[in-house]
Structure to design on (696 residues):
């Protein structure tokens, strides 16, 4: 078991729990022999679900967690009081090293707070960002941060840029990823106080490929691989992506029903259109990692189906084999040493 | 001429000047007998363009402005030094009361700065927001603020809510417009410092129909009529709308070229699809007013064609006949009186 990547799966989280998380786990086990799954949740429920499937029993264990944290619960309080919830149990397993990763479609707030409090941040990490990949016409980009900690400082954003670069390079396989900061114009002097404070710091970073500002208009065209912003803006971008995409699709469908001619055309283009839409669907790309923690925590959409949970579990293999947490620690340490050296030189 | 709405049009601004602004002005004159147009720009160029058209000469005058402010110029400096530019000339006409409104597709920065400095704000207005209408599946919403003044305070956002309500009610004809603040969750305790500071103030406003937070995902579905946010976020929303829309359309078109079947279907749905896309195109809805100024200033897209300029000119009729600037002044005065009264009551 030691050479397997051990993933704790929150079987009680999300709109379709426990059915979809259980199916996702079973599918992941079928897809890779390198995975061991802990299904965390109400034992009797999970065993009942599992009885529907054939799966390698030596690579799956049920971990009983009788409590469930609801989406509407205030996160800090939920983490503190529901010690036997699937979220607290799964995160604690990561902290103790019993699991390498925790995957959950449950309360975003509870997962974010719990990740920081229970798993803990890598030494040197000031804030742990939630970094989903978003579709572009060229492939995908990493949007960092979309978490719950708003009102960031420039030093946070610089760390996001470094962590995001590591993720895109070693998990997504993008060589020398282009890093850009979300801004309201391309010029260096534009932006709010946070962006103006961050821009010169990013320009000084020799260990990332900083290409400057990116306007929101250019994000869907894939002009950058790592899109740095503070969480409020990231959240707006992520959700508007979803909203505009969904609204347009519904309008396109309506538009096709307006005449006999377009109805026939609609039937003919339907399969091709469905494929296209899938490639631009944010929910198709597995979960968002919470970067900079001592173990891996992946947040999947509340509306996740088995396919997303399966993909998120499989994503953990690359994350562990590439030792992303270790690489983040090293990079931040090196950056600190470099800054101190430059500081000394300036003093001398 | 006194009963006509006098609109100064920047004939040198935008990617297609002077051809498209001139055509837009001529089209507006044909569409309404209540309009008088001042075409502001290089006289010889404009007269040459005008010679292509037949138009009511008694309702159009060319105002010579030999200088042009380029998009890349730092706005404050441009406004200060280029006194004979079309932007400074047009805005000065509004200040002096020679024109009721100024419509420009030129440098956004110069129009925003010039609007505040040259036309001046209505008494009581702390900041003048740029408020474009954006398409939704139900119609349109007003996105306020998308301007250049970032890092707003709660009191600014409260004024935006009031000004936006007036615009939607009296210019767009939406009775009792629903006002929402852009947030990262529906709960009152969510948000960054600015939103948390603004939310309770909006709740207390008896003169607007505040419905709470709106997540970016719900904006394209038309859940609110007036979408309040600070300018950095507004800018991101506006440009991402454009970006996601454009990227999706190009993907849909590509998708239709993948097989013989979908190619035929594509031809059949093309007219219906084009109509649909038009209804969701941000550039179709005329210009964005800069609200809270002593006259009307309308900023149209840099890529505006005649149709957008024509629509923006016609929009000025409603703005003037409804005395929007006067209504804004009154509403803000009433709000101030109300606040002072409540302050006194609390002291007593």
């Amino acid at each position: 078991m030691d050479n397997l990547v051990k993933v704790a799966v929150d079987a009680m989280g999300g709109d379709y729990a426990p059915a979809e998380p259980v199916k996702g786990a079973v599918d992941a086990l079928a897809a890779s022999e390198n995975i061991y799954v802990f299904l965390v949740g109400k034992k009797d429920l999970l065993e009942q679900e599992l009885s529907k499937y054939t799966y390698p029993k030596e690579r799956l264990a049920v971990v009983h967690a009788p409590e469930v944290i609801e989406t509407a619960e205030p996160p800090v309080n939920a983490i503190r009081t529901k010690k036997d919830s699937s979220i607290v149990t799964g995160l604690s397993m990561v902290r103790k090293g019993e699991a390498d990763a925790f995957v959950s479609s449950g309360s975003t707030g509870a997962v974010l707070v719990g990740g920081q409090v229970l798993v803990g941040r890598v030494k040197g990490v000031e804030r742990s960002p939630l970094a989903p990949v978003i579709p572009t016409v060229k492939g995908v980009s990493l949007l960092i941060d979309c978490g719950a900690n708003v009102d960031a400082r420039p030093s946070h954003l610089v760390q996001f840029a470094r962590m995001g670069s590591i993720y895109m390079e070693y998990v997504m396989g993008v060589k020398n990823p282009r890093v850009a900061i979300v801004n309201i114009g391309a010029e260096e002097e534009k932006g709010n106080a946070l962006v103006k404070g961050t821009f010169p710091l990013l320009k000084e970073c020799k260990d990332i490929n900083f290409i400057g500002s990116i306007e929101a208009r250019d994000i869907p065209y894939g002009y950058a691989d790592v899109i740095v912003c503070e969480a409020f803006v990231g959240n707006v971008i992520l959700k508007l992506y979803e909203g505009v995409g969904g609204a347009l699709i519904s309008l396109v469908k309506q538009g096709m029903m307006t005449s006999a001619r377009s109805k026939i055309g609609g039937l003919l283009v339907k399969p091709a259109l469905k494929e296209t839409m899938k490639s631009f669907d944010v929910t198709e790309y597995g979960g968002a990692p919470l970067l900079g923690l001592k173990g891996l925590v992946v947040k999947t959409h509340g509306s996740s189906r088995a396919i997303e949970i399966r993909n998120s579990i499989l994503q953990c293999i690359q994350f562990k084999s590439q030792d992303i947490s270790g690489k983040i620690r090293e990079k931040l340490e090196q950056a600190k040493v470099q800054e101190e050296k430059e500081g000394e030189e300036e003093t001398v």
